[in-house]
Design a protein that fits this description.
The structure holds 2 protein chains of 2 kinds.
Chain A lengths: L5 E10 L8 H13 L6 E5 L9 E2 L7 E3 L2 E3 L3 H9 L5 E7 L9 E8 L4 E7 L6 H12 L4 E11 L4 H6 L6 H9 L1 H5 L5 H9 L16 E5 H7 L8 E4 L4 E5 L5 H10 L11
Antiparallel strand pairs in A: 1-8, 1-9, 2-3, 2-6, 4-5, 6-7, 7-8, 9-10, 10-12, 11-12
Chain B lengths: L2 H38 L9 H13 L6 H13 L8 H11 L17 H4 L12 H7 L17 H5 L3 H38 L4 H29 L16 H7 L1 H17 L4 H13 L4 H38 L4 H10 L4 H22 L3 H5 L29 E2 L8 H17 L2 E5 L5 H5 L11 E5 L4 E6 L6 H13 L6 E7 L7
Helix pairs in contact in B: 1-4, 1-9, 1-13, 2-3, 6-9, 8-9, 8-13, 11-12, 12-15, 13-14, 13-15, 15-17
Classes of the chains: A alpha+beta, B mainly alpha.
Chain lengths: 278, 522
């Protein structure tokens, strides 16, 4: 992994029903993004059909298997297309590794969609798409007509900080932390969670971000009418608020605006993790 | 089973034995040597502290070594104020005082000299520390022959035999001689072990049988030496005051070996070198040096060899010959207490190790040492759930098919095997997590890799999974841990655990975690 590699990320959150499957059109749109930047090969992981979340496959026709990192990744592009066509998949992730990557986490671009809990992630190297707002629009265009998007954020993070996990509210652990968990089961269960973990709980729990609450202030956000009402954003006094679609808005903030916007949201009790709102 | 797998298994078993046995022996050494040290202290030649110590010692004698809080405080105050080369041992001496309150000696001069607190030694299942037959012990000591000591020689006079404590003096002489012989044996074993390690370094060839044999020899040697030391310390109490420490006074070889400034300076130097080199593992080395400090000069090489060879064997089992070469060099450096990682890397490359092997070897060494350090630290879990105290709902398994894993009603057997292929780091971490969970006593069942969630819980799961670790806590919750492989997506791996957890009844949901071997040491 290149030290300090910055990634531009967009995360969309949508309303989903249990068992909602991913449509083949999503794959087409995703492939177009990889093709636009000549990114190859493309790996994928899927859940559903006979795919296992543990495993990595190559988005190519049979015969295009790749041997990498001591493993052989089977080419199952045809199987993937069939599974999508049959409505078998509830989760799909695609990524393209950096040249010389020594593990799958060192990607140049990654796209994922999960119908539970209703989340799309698009991350690319900063040099490919430097503007978070542009990437958020692009992600929305990919989701349009396929998913009922209600909220979205765009941000920049070093790849080493796992921007994809940030979108999902996941954290990885060091061996010391795992030992702490094992050794002190009671204390661990009652520990104070960090903001990323709290976001993960919200995504998998009350999901109030779909009903008007914010994760925070970000360089670009997609907001629903309920967000506008919760934060009383109209008239907009910080940043630039524009209509994105019939019922969605795009709120863009400069770096200078971010602290004030965060305070603004706090003052209106619009953050999901604020006291009194959890 | 293929030959390679057999070798790997034997190596793992050997390491496991070592880790357990060595910890036990270390505990014994600290205890015995501190007792010994306290007995020898009045004869040390430094000045102004002696009257105070003599007065305290007289007080303890009066009390039958029943240390009270008041006498301990006096001792601590006195210790803090005096110019002693032993001052930095304050903590361990005070710890000894705590233990001394629980140790009683048999007043019978010819009887078993070391009746000890079963609470302390009952935790050492591999060795019968509770009763030591000194005569049998002396027979076991290599090189020792009865009747060779001066007090037992034909020249001993009737007057000598009539003096009080004659038998105890004989025994002290015998024990000292046996300890000297045993130290020589350990020294030669250490030399052999170093040679074996050098062979691995130079040739890359691993003679498993020989290393096993050496390991067993060193282990048995430590155990025997510990028993001798303990018996000697206990025997001191059976001597008249004027004869105590006769064979262990300033100027005698045994005393010099244990307490010379040069020895302590060398330990300090090793500590500094170790801490510089292994900054993240300073605590581990502190623990090691505490142990060394309480044992004999001649054992420090052997102990480092044990640490080093333990790492080597582990690495050999999971990292292959390339990793082994690198670690051999690393551990030889530790044994010498010299040089840094850069030199080690150069040495490894010179020995033919590839860059990948160097990287993997280094990572494994750090992981191993970090885990050792973590395990050395006392934890709330181990304090509140000692092996002797069974939780009400613990597993009741009584059969250990491998006959190698230490477990009992509170420390369940680890079920399942590690799936393959897995990277060396992956396997290592998977083992370490399972071992750690087993050691805490907080889990009733533990599985590793090849057991599915449905199988583990008895509850059918759609989209079943086989996490790298599953543990059923004694409270009935299930923890799941995954270790990231190079081809896996961490985001999905966590999602997989979350989805699996959601399928469990709420009261059974425990913690989930994903370890990335690359981020394992933060």
């Amino acid at each position: 992994m290149i030290a300090g590699q910055i990634t531009t990320s967009a995360a969309l959150y949508f309303e989903s029903e249990d068992g909602q499957s991913i449509l083949p059109l999503w794959l087409e749109r995703a492939r177009a993004l990889f093709a636009q930047y000549d990114l190859s090969p493309i790996f994928f992981t899927a859940s559903g059909g006979d795919f296992l979340l543990d495993d990595c496959y190559v988005l190519a026709q049979a015969g295009g298997a790749i041997s990498k990192w001591g493993e052989v990744f089977a080419a199952r592009g045809g199987d993937l297309a069939n599974a999508l066509h049959n409505g078998d998949l509830e989760l799909l992730g695609l990524d393209s590794p950096r040249a010389g990557a020594d593990n799958r986490g060192d990607w140049r671009a990654k796209l994922s969609v999960a119908s539970t809990p209703g989340k799309i992630y698009v991350g690319v190297d900063e040099d490919l798409i430097p503007d978070p707002s542009a990437l958020l629009r692009r992600a929305y265009d990919m989701a349009k007509g396929l998913f009922n998007v209600r909220y979205g954020i765009a941000y920049k993070l070093p790849l080493a900080q796992n921007p994809d996990c940030y979108a999902s509210g996941f954290v990885t652990s060091s061996v010391s932390e795992v030992f702490e968990m094992i050794r002190h089961r009671d204390q661990w269960g009652n520990r104070k969670k960090n903001p990323v973990e709290l976001w993960g709980d919200e995504l998998n729990g009350r999901r109030r971000h779909l009903a008007g609450l914010f994760r925070g202030a970000y360089p670009a956000s997609i907001l629903s009418e309920s967000h506008i009402q919760t934060a009383a954003l109209l008239p907009c006094e910080i940043g630039n608020l524009s209509e994105l679609d019939a019922s969605l808005w795009l709120w863009e903030l400069s770096d200078r605006d971010l602290p004030a916007a965060e305070e603004f949201l706090k003052a209106r009790a619009a953050l999901f993790n604020q006291a009194g709102t959890t | 089973m293929e030959l390679g797998e057999q070798a790997a298994k034997r190596l793992e078993d050997a390491v496991r034995r070592w880790q357990l046995e060595r910890r036990l022996v270390a505990t014994q050494f600290v205890d015995a040597a501190q007792t010994w040290f306290a007995a020898a202290w009045p004869k040390m030649p430094d000045g102004d502290w002696r009257p105070g110590f003599d007065a305290l010692l007289a007080e303890w004698r009066t009390q039958g070594v029943q240390v009270t809080a008041d006498s301990k405080q006096k001792f601590a105050d006195w210790l803090a104020g005096c110019e002693l080369r032993m001052r930095d041992r304050r903590a361990s001496i005070l710890e000894w005082l705590d233990r001394a309150a629980h140790v009683s000696a048999s007043p019978d001069e010819g009887g078993t000299p070391n009746a000890v607190d079963p609470g302390l030694f009952g935790k050492l299942p591999a060795v019968d520390w509770g009763h030591i037959d000194v005569d049998k012990l002396l027979h076991e000591a290599p090189g020792f022959r009865f009747g060779s000591s001066s007090v037992r020689s034909s020249s001993s006079s009737v007057a000598e035999e009539d003096r009080p404590g004659f038998k105890a003096r004989q025994r002290a002489e015998d024990l000292l001689q046996a300890m000297r012989s045993q130290r020589e044996t350990l020294e030669s074993l250490a030399t052999e072990m170093t040679r074996a390690v050098e062979t691995v370094r130079d040739t890359g060839e691993l003679d498993v049988a020989k290393l096993d044999q050496l390991a067993e020899g060193v282990r048995a040697g430590f155990v025997l030496y510990g028993k001798l030391l303990l018996a000697f310390a206990a025997n001191q109490r059976n001597l008249p005051p004027e004869d105590r420490n006769a064979g262990f006074a300033p100027g005698t070889p045994d005393y010099q070996e244990q307490f010379t400034p040069g020895f302590r300076a060398r330990l300090r130097s090793q500590a500094k070198a170790s801490e510089r080199k292994w900054a993240d593992d300073a605590e581990f080395y502190r623990q090691e040096l505490v142990w060394l400090n309480a044992t004999k000069t001649t054992l420090d090489i052997a102990s480092f060899a044990i640490v080093g060879t333990g790492v080597l064997l582990k690495a050999g089992a999971i990292g292959g010959a390339e990793g082994l070469k690198y670690l051999a060099i690393q551990m030889l450096q530790i044994a010498g207490g010299i040089a840094g990682a850069a030199v080690a890397a150069r040495g490894a490359r010179a020995a033919g190790a590839s860059d990948t092997a160097v990287e993997v070897g280094l990572r494994l060494a750090f992981l191993w040492l970090q885990i050792r350090a973590l395990r050395a630290a006392p934890t709330a879990a181990t304090q509140t759930a000692p092996k002797g105290a069974a939780p009400a709902n613990a597993s009741q398994k009584t059969i250990d098919p491998n006959d190698t894993v230490v477990w009992d009603e509170n420390h369940p057997l680890i079920e399942g095997v590690i799936d393959s292929p897995r990277s060396p780091e992956h396997k290592f971490l998977q083992d370490a997590v399972a071992d750690e969970a087993q050691a805490t006593g907080a889990y009733a069942r533990i599985s590793r890799g090849s057991i599915s969630l449905s199988e583990f819980t008895g509850i059918a799961h759609s989209s079943d999974i086989k996490p790298d670790f599953m543990g059923l806590t004694t409270e009935g919750r299930i923890d799941m841990i995954e270790i990231l492989s190079p081809g896996q997506d961490r985001e999905f791996l966590i999602g997989k655990l979350q989805n699996a957890m959601k399928q469990l009844p709420k009261e059974m949901r425990g913690g989930i975690s994903v370890i990335d071997p690359k981020d394992a040491i933060k």
